[in-house]
């Protein structure tokens, strides 16, 4: 029998799915019929109680390509949901799988779900990439059906039905284009027939097949809803099938998917083999020495590098069409499209790509490497080729591959090694501080500027900026927190100016991103200092706003006697593209000479954190180092510029905004996603916060200030100065340019399978953008941001397809992800929330840091689009929605006739509390026993004299006994008052961070943390002198059985509650006395007590009295305790 993955010639055609009703063969019987394009024969598939009659073979679709059953007389299908409802009436034989099982014997058939074992033919699909079968069952704990979960995790997109299913062994594909990406497929009813057709989401209405079938694409609905296949296409298993299925957890599925990458034949049984559960050692809060530091971070960097390489190398695209051109430098440039939505690879200018082409007629294959020099809004890539030998006459059939480089990871490893072996890499004081050792705070003797702290060429500093500059100049290690719009760049430039002029030494300024470095270099240059911007050699051909400050530009335009020879060689190289060996050697030697000369004469050197490891800087030493955006860099990344002789370090950032990007989930969970800025805060170094914001209209800054910054932000701009003149936009409250625009359209999985989009919101975004453009706002003033890459691509597509303004205006406007917009601003921001579902939740939209960034990008106006019923389930979003509702800015209806929304907000799953969301509170972090105890015990077993086996000859301290260490985890905890469950005093979530102390030693550590460490003068100039807390027992936590209850929050001291004496005597909280096990109220409101505890009880790790059998507590530096409250 011919395949039902129908094709004719080279045009792949997915069948149109027909449903014929009114069959005389039996009452209520229905038949699905198909036509094979090759044989023109009809095939019918049925799982019905009676055999239906055949459809009339004379009936054909308008296109002439497809035959389906005849339409039902007198019955009209005007909408897709009517068709879907009829399809839902199909009756499947519930005993099918049992009968098949009896025929096959007791062995599970090959088409059984690789996760749970369900094997009913109507319920399973085959992944064409892996060859494995998965069912449409939504197991307990899974975010979707087994089939969809596998496709998302494995990044596969093509499936085939079982041969015994009602639709046969059909490969699901688009009827018009042949696209097989199931995440882009949906169904549309044929108006004149009782038929549905599978079509791609991005199919154009002008496509011939669409015109022939007379389809209304507005009725398109995805075949995957709520992360499962629609049941008329792939049946949901019966309840008894699910009960018989293998019980598998989400964690096991994740491990199984990872195992399949190494061994495709692995099964669930292989999960029990040794080594499968191996996880990296988590980062610690403190380290005994730099060797231990390297021992922890080294493997994490290696794992992240391997994962990054695997992801990027696998992201190749074939069948690419190339447009060749020649640049001004006479190098060939290849232009092609590389859609961001189809892969998780994010191309950046400077990246290297490889082009390959297998020439026809057995000609020689060609490949060449080039550098990305430009990316535009339409996702066209400009690739400048390194070689002049390109097949410019060949336009099609190319393969594009990513060229992965290990440079950034190698430099991190080198920096950690330098930190360990080179005693001159940082001062002794910084060495101990970075490792978390307790030292007496040092004050530097630096003369204060006589003319004040404001700097010529920069705006006048406000009071908080002056305090920040003054404090930094006197401290060897400083943290500055710069909330959105508070003049962080100006403050940083002023600090660099004073460090350079007062200390009379070069200053190294670094940041993790090139954009941040360019902005800083420009601002510092305005002060009159000599600034050199060091770019990676791979980026020298790219344009930059500070081109005149770059090292390569200054070398090329250096005007000194005797430079004529270098200029001639450089001109020759540009004309010919290359030099002979002798001239190339001479050219490089002269270039190195001039580069060093320019760097030596600079007051300030600016580069990225990774760029600080450039060989051109290897012979330089910088006593003053400033790192901007330090909260967006991983800790080893920050270490690269610091190990170049630093004696004074300034870290600038905002831990309440997005942190470092770590791709490997296990590595991120182990703590690599925690920045050095955050760890130093945990160690008690308090950041200096800038407090006056100059960006947002006061009504826009109100909510972020109150929610994320304890209401401390002051407005440096008035309402009048933030009303944009001449722009007529229908703000619900004209003097408050903010609104939440209610949209109830459903979310869909994007074509990548790993992101989301919302078609309703995308259409609405286009209308809002068009309204702004019509009102006189320029495209460059508007920014559309969304948390999801799938929505970003879809919004751009919708604007170009449906926008009524000049398409070029939409192309000039920036549509970006929230993450990529951090540190940037626009006059008007449109935020599309995307998430709208019944059971999936809102994903990382609930991330407080991401919401903070999204809400603080606009200067003059902010429009938020979303489903308030879904979003209000989250406590933080619930607070935001009530905030805008109370101000009359929660609206719905047509844009020209907005009305206050009557939608009822959902009750949040828990009350919003700053402590529960990592936004404040004193050291309220929950600790749990480290999962790495066994390995750590082997690595660091104490010896008789109290020291461990050591590393690189360095003795271990008895206080670091990880075998009984404890780990804070980012788990929600509805603490009272200003307590904090997954954060610290300054408010940020924590990864798994291993505590360096055991429970009995805690009380002694509390005392020792206040003692002086180092040399007699307290300067700690030597990195070999550290204090070791002597072993002890007792303290607020008993050394007996660790059956702790909740000892978190606040409580009143009583004789029966000795633990509460260490907490503020305000409010009340539930406590368990560790000796008597007596319990105390957790909250003043007894009704909310049950609400807070119910989840923990349901999870099985807490009983009604609050006893916690899994999570223990330990006191911290100030004597307060960390509780084990549930989610």
From TrEMBL:
Gene Ontology CC: cytoplasm
Region annotation Disordered: where it falls in the sequence: 1-33, 45-79, 926-983, 1006-1055, 1106-1127
Source organism superkingdom: Eukaryota
InterPro entries associated with the record: DNA2/NAM7-like, DNA2/NAM7-like_C, DNA2/NAM7_AAA_11, Helicase/UvrB_N, P-loop_NTPase, SF1_C_Upf1, UPF1_1B_dom, UPF1_CH/ZBD
Bias (Polar residues): 966-982
Keywords (A to Z) from UniProt: ATP-binding, Cytoplasm, Helicase, Hydrolase, Metal-binding, Nucleotide-binding, Zinc, Zinc-finger
Low complexity bias locations: 1-14, 952-965, 1011-1021, 1034-1045
Any GO BP: nuclear-transcribed mRNA catabolic process, nonsense-mediated decay
GO function term, MF aspect, one: ATP binding
UniProt main location, coarse: cytoplasm
Composition bias, Gly residues: 15-28
Family: Belongs to the DNA2/NAM7 helicase family.
PANTHER family xrefs: DNA2/NAM7 HELICASE FAMILY, REGULATOR OF NONSENSE TRANSCRIPTS 1
The protein's name in its UniProt record: Upf1 domain-containing protein
The species this protein was found in: Ostreobium quekettii
Taxonomic lineage: Eukaryota, Viridiplantae, Chlorophyta, core chlorophytes, Ulvophyceae
């Amino acid at each position: 029998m011919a395949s039902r993955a129908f094709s004719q010639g080279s045009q792949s055609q997915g069948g149109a799915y027909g449903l014929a009703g009114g069959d005389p063969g039996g009452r209520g019987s229905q038949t699905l019929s198909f036509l094979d394009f090759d044989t023109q024969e009809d095939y019918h598939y049925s799982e019905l109680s009676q055999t239906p009659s055949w459809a009339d073979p004379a009936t054909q679709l308008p296109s002439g390509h497809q035959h389906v059953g005849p339409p039902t007389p007198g019955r009209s299908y005007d909408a897709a949901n009517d068709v879907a409802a009829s399809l839902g009436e199909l009756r499947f034989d519930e005993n099918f799988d049992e009968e098949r099982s009896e025929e096959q014997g007791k062995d599970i058939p090959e088409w059984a779900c690789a996760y749970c074992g369900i094997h009913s033919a109507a319920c399973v699909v085959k992944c064409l990439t892996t060859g494995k079968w998965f069912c449409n069952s939504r197991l307990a704990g899974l975010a979707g059906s087994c089939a969809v979960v596998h496709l998302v995790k494995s990044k596969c997109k093509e499936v085939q039905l079982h041969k015994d299913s009602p639709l046969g062994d059909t490969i699901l594909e688009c009827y018009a284009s042949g696209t097989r990406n199931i995440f882009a497929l949906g169904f549309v009813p044929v108006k004149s027939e009782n038929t549905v057709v599978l079509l791609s989401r991005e199919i154009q209405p002008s496509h011939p097949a669409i015109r022939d079938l007379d389809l209304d694409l507005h009725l398109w609905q995805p075949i995957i809803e709520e992360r499962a296949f629609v049941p008329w296409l792939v049946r949901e298993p019966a309840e008894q099938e699910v009960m018989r299925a293998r019980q598998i957890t989400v964690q096991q599925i994740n491990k199984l998917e990872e195992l399949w990458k190494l061994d495709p034949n692995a099964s669930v049984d292989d999960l029990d083999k040794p080594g499968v559960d191996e996880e990296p050692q988590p980062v610690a809060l403190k380290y005994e020495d730099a060797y231990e530091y390297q021992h922890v971070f080294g493997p994490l960097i290696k794992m992240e590098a391997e994962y990054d390489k695997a992801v990027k190398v696998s992201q190749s695209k074939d069948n690419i069409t190339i447009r060749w051109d020649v640049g001004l430098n006479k190098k060939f440039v290849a232009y092609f499209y590389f859609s961001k939505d189809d892969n998780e690879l994010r191309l950046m200018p400077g990246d290297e790509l490889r082009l390959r082409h297998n020439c026809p007629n057995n000609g020689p294959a060609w490949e060449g490497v080039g550098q990305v020099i430009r990316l535009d809004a339409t996702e066209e890539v400009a690739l400048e080729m390194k070689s002049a030998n390109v097949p410019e006459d060949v336009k099609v059939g190319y393969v594009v591959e990513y060229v992965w480089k290990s440079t950034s990871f190698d430099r991190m490893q080198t920096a950690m090694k330098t930190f360990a072996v080179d005693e001159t890499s940082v001062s002794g004081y910084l060495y101990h501080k970075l490792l978390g050792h307790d030292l007496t705070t040092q004050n530097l003797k630096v003369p204060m500027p006589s003319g004040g702290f404001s700097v010529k060429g920069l705006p006048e500093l406000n009071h908080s900026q002056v305090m920040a500059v003054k404090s930094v100049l006197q401290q060897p290690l400083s943290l500055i927190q710069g909330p959105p719009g508070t003049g962080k760049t100006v403050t940083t430039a002023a600090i660099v100016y004073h460090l350079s002029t007062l200390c009379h030494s070069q200053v190294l300024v670094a940041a993790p991103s090139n954009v941040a470095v360019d902005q800083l270099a420009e601002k510092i240059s305005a002060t009159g200092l000599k600034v050199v911007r060091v770019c990676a050699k791979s980026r020298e051909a790219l344009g930059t706003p500070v081109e005149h400050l770059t090292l390569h530009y200054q070398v090329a335009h250096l005007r000194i006697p005797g430079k004529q020879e270098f200029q001639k060689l450089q001109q020759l190289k540009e004309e010919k593209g290359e030099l002979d060996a002798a001239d190339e050697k001479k050219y490089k030697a002269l270039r190195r000479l001039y580069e060093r000369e320019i760097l030596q004469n600079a007051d300030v050197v600016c580069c990225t954190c990774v760029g600080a490891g450039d060989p051109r800087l290897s012979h330089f030493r910088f006593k003053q180092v400033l790192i901007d955006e330090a909260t967006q860099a991983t800790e080893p990344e920050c270490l690269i510029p610091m190990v170049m002789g630093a004696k004074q370090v300034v870290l600038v950032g905002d831990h309440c905004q997005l942190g470092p990007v770590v791709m490997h989930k296990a590595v991120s969970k182990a703590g690599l996603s925690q920045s050095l800025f955050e760890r130093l805060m945990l160690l008690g170094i308090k950041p200096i916060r800038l407090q006056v914001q100059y960006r947002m209209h006061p009504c826009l800054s109100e909510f972020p200030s109150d929610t994320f910054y304890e209401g401390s932000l002051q407005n440096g701009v008035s309402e009048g100065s933030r009303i944009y003149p001449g722009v007529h936009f229908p703000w619900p409250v004209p003097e408050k340019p903010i609104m939440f625009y209610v949209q109830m359209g459903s979310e869909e999985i994007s074509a990548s399978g790993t992101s989301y989009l919302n078609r309703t919101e995308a259409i609405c975004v286009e209308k809002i953008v068009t309204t702004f453009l019509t009102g006189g706002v320029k495209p460059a003033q508007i920014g559309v941001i969304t948390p999801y890459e799938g929505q970003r691509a879809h919004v751009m597509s919708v604007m170009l397809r449906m926008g009524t303004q000049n398409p070029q205006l939409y192309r000039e406007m920036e549509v970006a992800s929230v993450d990529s917009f951090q540190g940037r601003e626009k006059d008007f921001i449109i935020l599309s929330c995307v998430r709208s579902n019944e059971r999936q939740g809102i994903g990382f939209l609930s991330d407080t840091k991401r919401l903070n960034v999204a809400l603080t990008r606009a200067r003059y106006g902010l429009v938020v689009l979303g489903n308030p019923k879904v979003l209000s389930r989250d406590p933080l979003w619930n607070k935001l929605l009530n905030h805008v509702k109370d101000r009359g800015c929660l609206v719905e209806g047509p844009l020209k006739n907005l009305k206050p929304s009557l939608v009822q907000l959902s009750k949040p799953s828990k009350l919003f509390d700053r402590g529960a969301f990592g936004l404040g509170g004193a050291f309220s972090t929950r600790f749990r026993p480290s999962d790495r105890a066994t390995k750590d015990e082997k690595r660091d077993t104490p010896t008789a004299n109290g020291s461990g086996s050591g590393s690189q000859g360095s003795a271990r301290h008895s206080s670091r006994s990880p075998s009984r260490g404890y780990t804070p985890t980012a788990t929600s905890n509805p603490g009272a008052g200003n307590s904090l469950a997954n954060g610290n005093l300054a408010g940020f979530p924590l990864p798994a961070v291993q505590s360096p102390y055991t429970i009995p030693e805690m009380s002694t550590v509390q005392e020792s943390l206040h003692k002086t460490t180092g040399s007699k003068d307290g300067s700690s100039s030597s990195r070999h002198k550290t204090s070791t807390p002597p072993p002890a027992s007792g303290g607020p936590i008993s050394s007996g059985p660790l059956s702790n209850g909740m000892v978190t929050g606040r409580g009143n001291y009583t004789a029966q509650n000795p633990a509460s004496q260490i907490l503020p005597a305000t409010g009340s909280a539930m406590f368990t006395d560790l000796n008597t096990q007596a319990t105390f109220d957790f909250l003043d409101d007894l009704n909310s007590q049950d609400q807070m505890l119910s989840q923990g009880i349901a999870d099985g790790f807490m009983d009604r009295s609050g006893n916690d059998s899994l999570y223990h507590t330990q006191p911290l530096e100030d004597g307060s305790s960390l509780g084990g409250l549930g989610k």
